[in-house]
Automatic annotation (TrEMBL):
Residues 196-260 form the Signal transduction histidine kinase subgroup 3 dimerisation and phosphoacceptor domain. CDD domains: HATPase_UhpB-NarQ-NarX-like. It comes from Kribbella karoonensis. The chain crosses the membrane at residues 21-38, 50-69, 89-107, 114-137, 157-175. One of its GO terms (molecular function) is kinase activity. Gene3D superfamilies: 1.20.5.1930, Histidine kinase-like ATPase, C-terminal domain (3.30.565.10). Pfam families: HATPase_c (PF02518), HisKA_3 (PF07730). This is Sensor histidine kinase. The keyword Transmembrane helix applies. Keywords: Kinase, Membrane, Transferase, Transmembrane, Transmembrane helix, Two-component regulatory system.
Length: 379
């Protein structure tokens, strides 16, 4: 089962990139934009005196501190999780109040603060709400320049608010795309791991299913022969030991990721397994006509087909036919049954291997009765 994870928000994504342990260069990059607050500072210095000037400088400095605190806020998000809506609007409200407090001493230049507020709002709020928030700030700036006595309507503040919000929107979209890309990469990595687990499980099933079936048949035969033919029983027991060691070697090779099947070797193993199960084997004596590219797939067909014959068929005869592009495993047993061997785990894995090789798997009744498993390459 694949676990579905919730994607992080834009603010959380920015926190991951900036906020967990922001370096000094991150603070410097943010502080560069405070250059534009030089306008209200200059206005306070030119038009105010004494305690009024001090208060003017103080309000501008407090506003700058609220802007820089946004990056501290990102750190909080990174360490504690997503902020509530009340925290977001409360923070923007604080910045707006400080901006308004700048107006008595800085005059029209205090509207510069709206550029910072709009930028922070686009990053803090959900996109539709952020757009509406910027529209309100833009409208407020345009209206105030027209109705407040002594203020000039040069359109520069509204344009600056629009450009600032647009720039942050572009950064927001870039962060969102980065978040989506990271999430996609994680999903693909999880799917790759899951697929590899499934492949490994299929390989172990195919290896151990065949080997343990033959071992069981030979062990039963040895048990029957102990009293009647001790020498034959000893031979069968020796074969069981050899098969167990071979199965262990196959498992180790599968774990190491280097296991490849040999078609000739599988035919030899198939003959031994069928003989142990007292099933007459009619197998090809050479595989020379089979192209090298098809041999491993055909080896899997032999292993899966013979395992099913020994386990399920109740057959007396098994025939394997091989050509350059096709392999058939036929028996004279009871044939396919609904929900039986035709849809087992081994055949599912065999179909997947055949699909990867551009081959087709055919399962059904053999001519004259029994079970037929065939794989054709290049169909």
């Amino acid at each position: 089962m694949t676990t579905v994870k919730t994607n992080p928000t834009t603010l959380e994504g920015m926190a991951d990139r900036v906020g967990r342990a922001p370096g000094r260069w991150g603070w410097v990059a943010a502080a560069i934009w405070l250059f534009y607050l030089s306008q209200p500072l200059q206005s306070v210095a030119d038009h105010q005196h004494g305690i009024v000037r001090v208060l003017g400088f103080l309000t501008v400095i407090l506003f700058a501190a609220s802007y820089m605190a946004f990056f501290r806020l990102i750190r909080v998000v990174a360490l504690r999780g997503q902020l509530s809506s009340w925290h977001r609007f409360g923070y923007l409200g604080l910045m707006l109040v400080l901006c308004l407090l700048m107006i008595p001493t800085a005059g029209q230049t205090a509207l510069t603060g709206l550029v910072y507020i709009s930028a922070v709002g686009v990053m803090l709020l959900e996109l539709p709400i952020g757009i509406a928030f910027v529209a309100v700030l833009l409208g407020g700036a345009e209206i105030s320049m027209r109705v407040v006595p002594g203020w000039t309507d040069d359109g520069s503040y509204g344009f600056a608010i629009f450009l600032g919000a647009l720039a942050v929107y572009g950064m927001r979209r870039a962060i969102q795309r980065s978040i989506e890309l990271d999430a996609t990469r994680k999903d693909l990595a999880e799917l790759a791991v899951q697929e590899e687990r499934n492949r490994f499980a299929r390989d172990l099933h195919d290896i151990l299913g065949h080997s343990l079936t033959v071992i069981t048949v030979k062990a039963e035969l040895a048990g029957k022969l102990i009293a009647a033919n001790p020498e034959r029983a000893a031979t069968e027991v020796a074969d069981v030991e050899s098969l167990a060691r071979a199965a262990l070697a196959d498992v180790r090779a599968a774990v190491a990721g280097y296991r490849e099947l040999s078609l000739a070797g599988e035919l030899v193993s198939a003959r031994a397994a069928l003989q142990a199960a007292e099933i007459k084997a009619e197998l090809p004596t050479t595989v020379d006509e089979v192209p090298e590219d098809n041999r491993e797939l055909f080896a899997w067909v032999v292993r899966e087909g013979v395992t099913n014959v020994v386990r399920h068929s109740g057959a007396k005869r098994c025939t394997i036919k091989i050509s350059a592009t096709e392999i058939e495993v036929l028996d004279d047993g009871k044939g396919p049954t609904p929900g039986g061997g035709a849809s087992g785990h081994g055949l599912v894995g065999l179909r997947e291997r055949a699909d990867q090789a551009g081959a087709a798997v055919h399962v059904g009744q053999a001519p004259g009765g029994g079970f037929r498993l065939a794989v054709t390459v290049g169909v």
